[in-house]
Amino acid sequence: MEGKKNTISILMLPWLAHGHISPFLELAKRLTKRNFHIYMCSTPVNLNSIKKSVTEKYSQSIELVELHLPSLPNLPPYYHTTNGLPPHLMNTLKIAFEMSSPNFSKILQTLNPDLVIYDFIQPWAATFASSVNIPAVQFLTFSAGVLAFAFHMFEKPGEDFPFPEIYLREYEMLQMKKTMEESKEDKSPFDEALRKSRDFILVKTCKEFEGKYMGYFSSLVSKKIVPVGSLIQDTVSRDDNEEITQWLDKKEKNSGVFVSFGSEYFLSKEELHEVAQGLELSKVNFIWVIRFPQGENNSSIKDSLPKGFLQRVEDRGMVLEGWAPQATILKHISIGGFVSHCGWSSFMESVNFGVPIIAMPMHLDQPMNARLVEYIGFGVEAVRDDNGKLQSEEIAKVIRKVVMEESGEDVRKKVRELSEKMNMKGDEEIDEVVEELVALCNNK
């Protein structure tokens, strides 16, 4: 702890999802290079999953701090994360997280950091920080377009969103309303958390393709929006990647797709079948990672997929369960497309590695991200039917277009150009972030 004395210390509190914790950790790594000391606070199960990413290089400047949630009968400690969490327990997890706020308050008083960086539904974190004269800033890991769209819906109901390229289809709007009713959510925690952010809000985005949405969001919340960039994680070398890399090495350049729908959405058997049939019809190579909720021991890949599928595609398809080295796969020369749910971190990784997206949004912010993919022009959505059901022939058609056909060349070219532009920028956004954080700490 000797190295901490002359640095600015920050306590980070992300929401309990990998798609939130990972960007917080990547921001932490970049800040440590600018003389910040980071306390990363989360549940033991989440911290355990990122320990390997806090390499020796960061061991003195990033400390993992355990936040213990109350013990609830249907929420054992291995469920203190959204990764593998059965969907019906999501609201219970949110309740347990809020119930842990007194524990967070104790951590805050013990560590006494210079600053708190908190996530999207944690107004209590900002309240506790303010009560002991510690400034708190919100860091949002969503697209600025999605944030502007959501806040516009709350603030200006019935009024058209000024950027018509971002919209929800009828079945998506119904799904979102149902999700909000089931989780008993309203805008209050989201709105309150935004309002409590001191002076500005950090957003995981880039001005290149979200500048106008940042401006509109800023006008809605009356705060400066500071982009932090794409925050792509370092590729971690793992011994068990070797088989995957060797398989990819045997494939031709840009001949295959990586297929993943994130850690929080579990495809139904019907959806698995449509995706499988779409991949089979496409005739391209693929690596597909399939996940099941934790505790569902009766689920297996073989039983969940169409009969004989694995045998029919064994020469050109690899199916993995649970986890895959996403960044390692996406940056491999043989990958020419990403069949993605359009989670924002996956969106950013695709752009970073110059891999066009075959968009198949599932829920939450993903449909709006998918519209952004098409609007910017570096991907194509595999559109569902009017009832929101996946269509295998549509999936196959879009995969072929994006990866193989001449009609997809504009998409492939666009994502390559955007990738080159973003990679040339380096850490420009972090310079602005550091400037704002230092000024805030100096003026508290």
Biggest sheet details: 7 strands, parallel
Strand content: 5-15%
User: Helix proportion of residues, in percent?
Assistant: 40-55%
Structural class: alpha/beta
Count the E strands. Answer: 13
Mean pLDDT across the residues is: 91
* Unreliably modeled segments: none
Placed side by side, the strands forming the largest sheet appear as 3-2-1-4-5-6-7
Rg, Å, rounded: 22 Å
How many helix segments?
Answer: 19
**Distance, first to last CA:** 24 Å
The global form is: globular
Write up this protein.
The model has no long low-confidence stretch (mean pLDDT 91). It contains 19 helices and 13 strands. Strand 1 (8-13), helix 1 and strand 2 form a beta-alpha-beta unit. It is of the alpha/beta class and 444 residues long. The longest helix has 17 residues, at 409-425. It has helices at residues 18-32, 44-50, 90-99, 101-111, 123-131, 144-155, 170-182, 188-196, 207-221, 242-249, 269-282, 301-304, 309-312, 326-330, 344-353, 366-376, 392-403, 409-425, 428-442, and strands at 8-13, 36-42, 62-66, 115-118, 136-140, 200-203, 224-227, 256-260, 285-290, 317-321, 335-340, 357-359, 379-381. It starts with 7 loop residues before the first strand and ends with a helix. The protein is globular and about 60 Å long.
